């Protein structure tokens, strides 16, 4: 899974459990320890896109959480492949063509 989806999925699950956006340290995200440079670059991009918010904890370290105002965009990024409109449209077109094929 891409770092973007890993970060957003972790923050989304944390928000579901807590009920509100809860900040965590980036180092607590699975996979961050393996490739911190790649994850940090992705976190910076997500901050720039305003999908996540960055805050400082009581120790002055960076903590991130989902941007509650952009939850719809986050759900779009996290939806499975079969739920994309293009895939669903192609499936229904194929089903309609098959249906017409059987009727002919």
Overview of this structure, please?
It contains 4 helices and 2 strands, in the order ααββαα. The protein has helices spanning 3-18, 36-48, 71-78, 85-103; strands spanning 52-56, 62-66. Strands 1-2 form a two-stranded antiparallel sheet. A hairpin with a 5-residue loop joins strand 1 (52-56) and strand 2. It is elongated, with a radius of gyration of 19 Å. The mean pLDDT is 86.
Reported for the largest beta sheet, the result is:
2 strands, antiparallel
Query: Which of globular, elongated, flat, extended, rod-shaped describes the shape?
Result: elongated
Note the total helix count.
Answer: 4
How far do the termini sit from each other?
44 Å
Radius of gyration: 19 Å
Q: Classify the secondary structure makeup into a structural class.
A: mainly alpha
Element-level helix/strand string: HHEEHH
Portion of residues within helices: 40-55%
Search tags:
104 residues; mainly alpha; two-stranded antiparallel ribbon
Question: How would you briefly describe this protein structure?
Answer:
The protein has 104 residues and is mainly alpha-helical. It contains 4 helices and 2 strands; from the N terminus they run H-H-E-E-H-H.
């Amino acid at each position: 899974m891409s770092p973007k989806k890993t970060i957003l999925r972790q923050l989304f699950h944390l928000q579901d459990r807590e009920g509100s956006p809860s900040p965590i340290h980036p180092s607590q995200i699975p996979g961050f320890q393996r490739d911190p440079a790649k994850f940090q670059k992705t976190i910076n991009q997500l901050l720039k896109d305003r999908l996540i918010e960055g805050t400082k904890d009581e120790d002055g370290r960076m903590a991130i959480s989902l941007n509650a105002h952009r939850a719809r965009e986050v759900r779009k990024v996290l939806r499975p492949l079969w739920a994309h409109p293009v895939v669903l449209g192609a499936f229904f077109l194929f089903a309609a063509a098959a249906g017409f094929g059987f009727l002919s």
